[in-house]
Amino acid sequence: INPQRSHPAQDSWCSITSTLITLLCLSAPGGVSLVVPQPNINTTVAQNILLSVEYSCRGVATIEWKHVSSWGTTKIVEWKSGNYVNISSVYKDRVTTFENGSIQLLNMGVRDAGYYFITVTEEYGTSTYGTIIVNVYEIIYEDLHFVAVLFAFLAAVSAILICFMWLCNKSLHLFQKKTPQKLTASTTEEIELETIEC
Which cell locations does it reside in (predicted)? Predict the structure, then answer.
């Protein structure tokens, strides 16, 4: 049985592909790195937060941020370093981008909680990823404010009731003081009348 020989055209194609891959690897700038210093962020409603990252890349990089939560996946922003910035219409007035790849989100809401994914892709196709988990809580002082207002209202009602009871008590005392004098005066008149009749 004769061994199967490879076709000369296949050999030349493999050689060309190998050469192109070698040239691409040699021309690649050495990849891209990403550092996420704060992977977990806790915030409250209506606050502004900074999703801080730092990337390094020899070539031109494309940065993309996405938000993933139980409500779905939303693309926030994509930009190329030193070039265009494409912000999603949902985040149009809420996002500020920075050259190091970081973004600032304004006026956080409960629906903004979830995972924030950043993808940094260099011009040669190498990519790296990072994740930041954001927890958004209801503002506690609003609840305290409601409790304080309710307490002040109850205190005011109690004060009014106490004043009303005090006035009633005073009026009752004054009425009791006047009543015996009238009784005494009428009793004296009766005694005098009886004396005269006798």
Answer: Membrane
